[in-house]
Write a structure and sequence with these properties.
- The protein has 2 domains: 117 residues, Ubiquitin-like (UB roll); 73 residues, [2Fe-2S]-binding domain (DNA polymerase, domain 1, Orthogonal Bundle).
- Helices cover 36% and strands 13% of the residues.
- It is built from 10 helices and 6 strands.
- A hairpin with a 2-residue loop joins strand 2 and strand 3.
- The longest helix has 14 residues.
Length: 217
Amino acid sequence: MTDRRRGEKTDAVDPGRRRFLKGVGLAGAGAAIIDLIEPEKAHATLPNVSPSSDGTVEVALLVNGQRRTARIEPRTTLLTALREYLDPPVTGPKLVCDMGTCGACTVLLDEAPVYACLVLAVDAAGKKITTAEGLGTPDRMNPVQRAFVEKDALMCGFCTPGFVTAISALLRKNPRPTIEEIREACQGNFCRCGTYPRVFEAALAAAGSGGPNRAEE
């Protein structure tokens, strides 16, 4: 793997980013060949996916605890389906690079952080999809969201939902991470404003809150 900022090989020192991308590699490959397969045959056996004769499919997505349906082309990514084909749309995941390098579109797929721009919507059908909206609301924030506000860990805001989602996933598995573990968990996310110190400070504050890693009841 090549570091996008220095052009150096980072395979030996970048395990977090590889783990982050592990769950989406096959989905990305599927996107490249999907046009070569007849939709009716390609998705006939997939649960929560109903093909039609016009080449589109109706897909059922479990988004933030709600079953949402959309009619899309089989090659449509999860990010596009969430933002453009649901009514009302789910706009927490941001469309920034659209090539799996920045992390602004990070969502949780069965609790694992993935790039929504690299996952096909049909591959996410029936799986548990959690976006920043599903972690909490302005009135009932989860510890990570609350810490981001208190520590002023955002500037333009485009990368913020991705960071919040990735860090929330980390704290679910490791409630008391070290700063090194937080940095590793965030290696799949890129902040063009350079707000990393406050992002890490917010993550440490959320880890020390002692509360559940979900919106407060």
